[in-house]
Design goal:
alpha/beta; Rossmann fold; Arc Repressor Mutant, subunit A; six-stranded parallel beta sheet; 35 helices
């Protein structure tokens, strides 16, 4: 492709992002991935759940002249994406057994007539001879393989039918291929690239971190009461609870329903009709809680799931990561809590012991131990989570997990037992796993110990001060802290440089040998909701009504984030509504006038003015001109400014005028934006309650990052200045610009 042609399609992609999907900018890696696909280079995209993978093939699918085939193992996810694409006026369809004969034939006709841009298929459907015959008569431009970790036998969810997808790819040599997954270890990634002929330069790895997810673990003690207390923190909000068994799902659902909570079960023991009905009711916000088996792959892209609770321990980190990744896909805060009991470990090990393949058994045990290391971690929980996927955590303190935000736990000096364990690994020639090392330390007469003559070692029978469970906890911490590496195929332990320093006594080893018993319940992190919550509630209720009328899930109309932004900026015109995240031309034409009417009505009743949104602001002069008339004609604004000039605080004015603090701040901000000067601007600095050093840093940050959006300023100050304080400092900053 020549440079001129390349620039044309890239501009086309950016226009589609804004005008169709309503997003102002690409997320991390999205643009590079899309560019690579448009260059027709086979691509591997590793992005976190909720990180925007679907746009990476949806936008090229709109740009390309031909058909884009999307392979996905989940019928419900395919149907969900088709509904959302059709809502955006993008012709998409699915072929599967859930369709009526009439709908199936209509979709076939649309494909034959080249009216469809994106076709969603399950892998086994794509390989059927009649489907292959249909597709060979089409101009297939792109093949997207979602959940690509299913290709690799090293993945946690290997599916043999995925291995056969090379047959589909061979049928269309001119089609570019993109493989996407959220959960792939380095070994799985290499396997995917090898099978799909993807070069290292076409591999894109976004951070696996989901910073908006609060990750917490508490010891399982009276689990139902812990569960009930947790979900009651989120009234009328969507959440998922995972259990280990179908029986557990049914029992927990019944208890929740008896206590008046809106909950439904989901597991393989239910009929397909019930599963479909229950999932649909959850998607449509008719029920708030889904209780599901851990193995259940929630094939939906519901963006407003506010929490995920693990009632039982997951078998591996990949499954856990996928499951918590179903929360907070809208970018707003979400809560993830694991109830951790060692009894769950025994159940999982029992099932592992039933495996006949020794290599599978070793791999399953290793995965379980990695999950236990995360559950037992005494430092930031994101460290073992990210390290599992080969990513180094950039922060010692993430400020969004229980270990980083809670009270520090007192660690013990375990240097001597660590030296015993590491020495035993060395003396057994670094060829054995943790279980065998512990047998040697505890003086076991197991056949494997005697056969290898490890009963003759100096480390034999020197570790009886701890139980096998305690030694296993120590072993996991030695791995987690980088003193040991574990072979992925055989499970054998290898010493690292750090281990040498501990063995020689140069460095002590501090850790928790046993998780402390926590009696206090988990306290959730408050979700950031910048919009006026009274207006948000009105917009949500109306969204639900529109969704029911159109037979759509509410989020297919607008996401929670979009409604929150509407309730923050109070847009009064179509141009300003387009500046809201998630509002594109298609949504504007369909819902614009209706939502503007709701917002204008609310603002008139509550004396609220539109807030400037600089996402695509034209010029300050235009904004000031339009705002001057409103400030002069608004008697409430005049009263508020007069009260401020007499020395009243924001909170006292809010009480006097019976409005929220945010409303007062909006009036002051608009006054400053209009070019007016305050008689006492320093009052704003005083009311912030900040030290002069923090004030100077914040004002410098406004000068560097601009005042239009607070988040860049907030981030640059390492979150040491709150948003409430920044609102006041922004008013001061803007007022000084007019001098």
């Amino acid at each position: 492709m020549c440079n001129q042609g390349r620039e044309k399609v890239l501009n086309q992609a950016k226009n589609i992002l804004k005008n169709v999907f309503g997003f102002d900018e690409f997320r991390e890696s999205q643009q590079a991935i899309i560019n690579n696909i448009l260059e027709r280079q086979n691509t591997l995209a590793i992005m976190p759940t909720g990180g925007g993978k679907s746009l990476c093939y949806q936008i090229p699918g709109v740009v390309f002249d031909g058909l884009t085939i999307v392979i996905s193992p989940l019928i419900s996810l395919m149907q969900d994406q088709v509904r959302q694409l059709n809502e955006l006026a993008i012709p998409a369809c699915v072929l599967n057994s859930s369709l009526s004969d009439t709908d199936y034939q209509a979709n076939l006709d649309g494909i034959k007539q080249q009216q469809i841009k994106l076709l969603f298929l399950a892998p086994e459907t794509a390989l059927q001879s009649n489907i292959l015959d249909l597709l060979t008569n089409c101009d297939v431009a792109c093949i997207a393989i979602d959940e690509a970790h299913c290709i690799s036998e090293w993945g946690h969810d290997f599916r043999p039918e995925y291995r056969q997808l090379n047959r589909l790819i061979e049928c269309f040599p001119n089609a570019v291929c993109i493989a996407l997954t959220a959960t792939a270890t380095p070994r799985v990634r290499e396997d995917i690239k090898r099978q799909l002929n993807i070069t290292d330069t076409s591999e894109y790895i976004s951070s696996f971190d989901r910073p908006n997810l609060f990750i917490g673990v508490i010891p399982k003690d009276n689990p139902y009461q812990q569960c009930k207390k947790f979900v009651e923190q989120y009234p009328k909000q969507s959440g998922i609870i995972y259990c280990q068994s179908r029986k557990g799902v049914d029992e927990l659902t019944t208890k929740l329903q008896q206590d008046g909570l809106s909950a439904l079960p989901y597991h393989a023991g239910l009929s397909s009709i019930k599963r479909s009905d229950y999932q649909e009711r959850f998607i449509r916000d008719d029920v708030h809680i889904i209780v599901a088996t851990i193995a259940f792959g929630m094939g939906i892209n519901k963006p407003d799931v506010r929490y995920v609770l693990h009632y039982d321990l997951p078998k591996n980190i990949e499954g856990y990561y996928q499951q918590i990744g179903r929360a907070g896909r809208d970018g707003l805060d979400a809560d993830c809590l694991l109830l951790f009991g060692y009894g769950d470990t025994g159940k999982i090990r029992f099932f592992i012991d039933q495996m006949s393949n020794e290599q599978e058994k070793r791999l399953a045990n290793m995965h379980l131990n990695q999950m236990l290391a995360l559950a037992e971690a005494e430092d930031c929980r994101r460290t073992p989570l990210l390290e599992y996927f080969g990513e180094q955590s950039l922060k010692e303190n993430c400020n969004n997990c229980d270990n980083c935000t809670g009270e520090s736990k007192e660690k013990s000096d375990l240097t001597v037992p660590a030296q015993k364990f590491l020495s035993c690994v060395h003396r057994t020639e670094q060829r054995f796993g943790a279980s065998h090392i512990i047998d040697v330390l505890r003086g076991s007469s197991a056949e494997k110990v005697l056969q290898n003559q490890h009963n003759l070692l100096s480390t034999y029978n020197i570790g009886n001060e701890y139980s096998k469970k305690q030694w296993m906890t120590l072993a996991r911490q030695l791995i987690q802290k980088g003193l040991l590496n574990q072979d992925e195929q055989f499970g054998s332990l290898k010493l690292t440089q750090k281990a040498g320093d501990v063995l020689k006594g140069k460095v002590p080893f501090f850790a928790l040998l046993q998780q402390p018993v926590v009696t206090s319940s988990h306290t959730s992190k408050a979700m950031t909701k910048p919009g006026d919550q009274q207006l948000v509630a009105i917009l949500k209720a109306d969204r639900k009504r529109l969704a029911d009328e159109a037979n759509l899930p509410p989020y297919a109309i607008f996401s929670d984030r979009t409604l929150n932004e509407m309730a923050y900026y109070f847009p009064h015109s179509q141009d300003n509504l387009l500046r809201i995240h998630g509002v594109g031309q298609a949504k504007l034409e369909k819902y614009g006038e209706h939502y503007l009417a709701l917002i204008n009505d609310f603002c008139q009743k509550n004396d609220i003015q539109e807030v400037s949104n600089a996402q695509s602001a034209t010029s300050k002069a235009t904004t000031s001109k339009s705002n001057n008339s409103s400030i002069n004609s608004n008697s409430r604004s005049v009263e508020i400014i007069s009260a401020y000039e007499t020395g009243q605080s924001v909170s006292s004015m809010a009480e006097q005028f019976k409005v929220k603090n945010g409303t007062i701040i909006n009036h002051l901000y608009r006054y400053a934006q209009d070019g007016h000067k305050f008689a006492q601007p320093s009052q704003l600095l005083e009311q912030s309650g900040l030290s002069q050093a923090h004030i100077d840093s914040a004002l410098a940050a406004f000068a560097e990052h601009s005042y239009e959006r607070l988040k860049p300023v907030y981030d640059s100050l390492s979150e040491q200045v709150s948003y409430d304080q920044l609102h006041l400092l922004r008013i001061y900053f803007v007022s000084q610009l007019t001098e």
